[in-house]
Design goal:
Oligomer: single chain
Distance between the termini: 62 Å
Number of strands: 0
Helix content: over 70%
Number of helices: 11
Order of helices and strands: HHHHHHHHHHH
Shape: elongated
Radius of gyration: 32 Å
Length: 357
């Protein structure tokens, strides 16, 4: 006879929960029976309970000590800690203090191990050499994805029973991950390439973390700010090859006007003529080039579309400022102003690139 046996594997935390659920149920019944049958309470009830259940509890503690001393699964350890928190609440609601000391001893084993594993993670990230990881492309790196999923899991757990020790460890881990991403980005020779890599990684981490945690989590806010800063810098970089002359002129002219030194720029008519004529001749093709470059650079289509809209909005703002500068002395008498395109024509063209979703 041949029989097929099916073996199902269970994670340690699921076994821990089942084992301790049975323990809690039995201990509550045993403690309440002792109090009722022997008409005792307080220390007397606890002593009787210990004489009955002491060996079982010692066996459980020994088993956990053996497991935790060789465990490197920080999420499993942290889940066990949270299971203990919930069983503590359950027993307090039943007014059964019988396992208070047992839970304290268990937590004294688990907390140091959890912190130790996190310290190893922090050290590993800090000591990782990007050049030993092989070639790097624009896509989110597998290490940052693993970090995002790991951090999201711990943050979501910590929101139910907040503990400052976890916040401190996660803050240090996040700092090392941010430094690691910057080291990876430095492998790219051009700043624009570095920004694309950073934005793709920040966007992925933000998406994963916000999906698993509350909107206002510290980690989410931090990566949202980094994403916004690098996105704004990228927008300037992607516009610069096509509109950099106009952008530079606007900044210089606005600064001169603000300082009362506008007259010093009245000899730049030739420069202004070239800027206007170049813009008139090339602006439509330049917008299409920006569109193609942005949409092929980012792994998240929604994020790429948002960046494109930001770039085109920034272009309209620069052009508006350009026209505003030329409408003031000493530029307003220049004949080349008549060649300027109406800003509404640019806005109509920009709307063609607006997403339909």
């Amino acid at each position: 006879m041949h029989s097929n046996s099916t073996f199902s594997q269970h994670t340690f935390e699921s076994l821990f929960r089942s084992q301790h659920y049975a323990l809690v149920d039995n201990c509550c019944r045993e403690y309440l029976f002792i109090c009722d049958f022997f008409m005792v309470s307080g220390n007397s009830a606890q002593d009787l309970f210990n004489s009955i259940m002491g060996k079982t509890l010692s066996m459980f503690l020994k088993h956990m000590d053996v497991y935790s001393s060789d465990c490197f699964d920080s999420i499993a350890v942290y889940l066990c800690i949270h299971i203990i928190f919930r069983f503590q609440l359950m027993m307090h609601k039943r007014a059964v203090p019988a396992l208070d000391k047992y839970w304290e001893t268990m937590l004294e084993m688990l907390w140091p191990r959890f912190q130790y594993i996190l310290e190893l993670n922090i050290a590993n990230i800090r000591d990782t050499d990007p050049q030993k990881l092989g070639s790097v492309d624009y896509r989110p790196h597998y290490i940052t994805r693993r970090y995002a999923e790991f951090s999201g899991a711990l943050v979501s757990l910590n929101e139910t029973f907040p503990d400052e020790r976890v916040n401190q460890c996660l803050a240090r881990l996040q700092m090392e991950v941010e430094n690691f991403i910057l080291r990876l980005a430095a492998e790219f020779p051009q700043r624009k390439e570095q920004l694309i890599f950073l934005i793709n990684n920040y966007d992925m981490m933000l998406s994963v973390i916000t999906e698993r945690t509350s909107e206002d989590s510290r980690e989410g806010e931090s990566f949202r700010k980094l994403l916004q800063e690098r996105t704004q810098e990228f927008i300037e970089e992607v516009l610069s090859p096509y509109f950099g002359g106009m952008m530079t002129f606007v900044k210089e002219a606005e600064s001169a006007v603000e300082k009362g030194q506008a007259d010093q720029m009245k000899y730049q008519e030739q420069r202004i003529q070239k800027l206007v004529r170049d813009f008139v001749a090339e602006w439509k093709q330049a917008i299409e080039n920006v569109n193609q470059e942005v949409m092929k650079s980012f792994t998240n289509f929604k994020n790429g579309t948002s960046i494109l809209q930001g770039a085109l909005t920034q272009l309209i703002q620069y052009y508006h400022r350009f026209k505003e500068v030329l409408s003031k002395p000493p530029f307003k008498t220049m004949a080349v102003r008549s060649q300027l395109i109406n800003i509404h024509h640019i806005m109509v063209e920009v709307k063609k690139y607006k997403p339909n979703f």
